[in-house]
Give the backbone structure.
Amino acid sequence: MSLPPTAEAAADDQTYAVVEEEHGLSPRRVGPVVMDIRNITLRFGGVVAIKDISFDIREGEIRAIIGPNGAGKSSMLNVINGFYHPQEGEIWFRGEKRGSMKPHEIAKQGIARTFQNIALFKGMTTLDNIMTGRLTKMRRNMFWQAVWSGPAEAEEIEHREKVEKIIDFLEIQHIRKTPVGRLPYGLQKRVELGRALAAEPQLLLLDEPMAGMNVEEKEDMSRFILDVNEEFGTTIALIEHDMGVVMDISDRVVVLDYGRKIGDGTPDEVRTNQDVIDAYLGVAHD
Amino acid sequence: MFLTDPFFWEIVVSGLLAGVMYSLVALGFVLIFKASGIFNFAQGVFALFAALTLVGFQTGQVPFAHLLSWITGTSIHTWGSGMPTLVAIVFALLVMIGLAWLVVRIVLRPLVNQEGIILFMATIGLAFVLEGTGDLMWGANVKALDVGLPQGPSDTIIDATGMFVDKLEISAAVVAVLLVVALTLFSQFTRMGRALRAVADDHQAALSVGISLETIWWIVWSIAGIVALVAGIMWGAKSGVQFSLSLIALKALPVLMLGGFTSIPGAIVGGLIIGVGEKVFELYVGPMIGGATENWFAYMLALLFLLFRPQGLFGEKIIERV
């Protein structure tokens, strides 16, 4: 048997995958399209927030949505999770066209998300916050819940175990019982990620998971995102402003500007796309 | 020394029991405020409406009898001898749950994501509409409500301690304790409780974890309706079912300011403090300043709390970060 993959081998993804397979490990695989967004147009009165945008998200990939401020990135995420209803276009999820659905129904379908400016339940503890993520998975009806016995209790314990695993995974054991309102910003972001993970989502939407973080916190968060993707095979769509991070962790990037799509492809393709460079650096008008 | 004065203790006990009655009303406010951030001005009218409906079912009144007679030219006001009390209570419960559903569909749903103050205004409108509807349905006359609760002074207590305690108020206390225990268990130890607290904290986040706002609101307003029914029964049995029942809501305000708008135990303790406070104040300070202090004591106490501890005794401190 040969040596485990070395740092040199890891530098090259292809080699890394081959070596992994030799060792009987399954390398990360990107599967078929899990979400297909077709010709979405979203208007607020006369303002067109998103204009005729199409792209897809493949199973198991990390898909980034980037663009300057006001490009329609957050609106796009809000369309995917059902906060906004686009005037035109279709969304296909797992091979089925999605009708008009409410956000809580979409959450039950397996789409979880975090928010740009943290939407945690501030009065609750970390543990309770992450437990709310399990609500879609709980089956016992209200009557059992109300009498709090037998089956409902067993179910609670089962969910609690899953949540403890997530807490371990995100390394937030020490703040398990702390009300999240008291936590520093970086940890709140992590708890929010934990709540989204607790739903065991098929598709995880992250709205600027690293906004306002320092370098160290950003590195931690990047590591968690990659780990989630690799260990649980979770499909992730994320919005991020830090180009360095985006280019490092994502498989494919879609670039929006003024509500239109101006680029789509691997980080390398996007980096060399003239439209994208223009959007970010400005164009000389002569 | 006033502590050895049996009259003092009688005042304290009757104050405590009156306080329980205030707490019953305040509870309804707290529930809705906790789960939706709405101060429901209509809570008092809810109690009135619930009591009216109960009496109506009990005595076999035809709802909208005057209106129906006017339209059809007949004069049918009753449909029989009425229902047994327990059946009537069950039906009144169903009406309150139906009412909660209507409120969510007609009032709350179009106002999702609006400011708290706008929702508050909507509940003022709701109070007027419901009051009018109640009059139209069951008539505006004062009605007696008898649900078979014991009335009058308790002989056992008089014999044992020499204190005069109304049996009805004892039942009210027992009911209030049961209600609070049930509500606390419900909101602390169940999935529904966690969902309730989540909705109160953040609408968007609640939706994103798969909680249906409408279902939660319906449940909360139904519970508030049930609490209103209990309060309506107790107050109705005490002083008759009449329009002034909706004004007991005003007495609940100082209770809430004392206890804090977000705390169920706060509503209870606040009610007890006000109940005892106003009786004792009337007894010892009243004669010095000309009496009739019971009308304003609660509000003065609330004012003091607003000055020194605006979040109340048990409420969450509201911190705005800029």
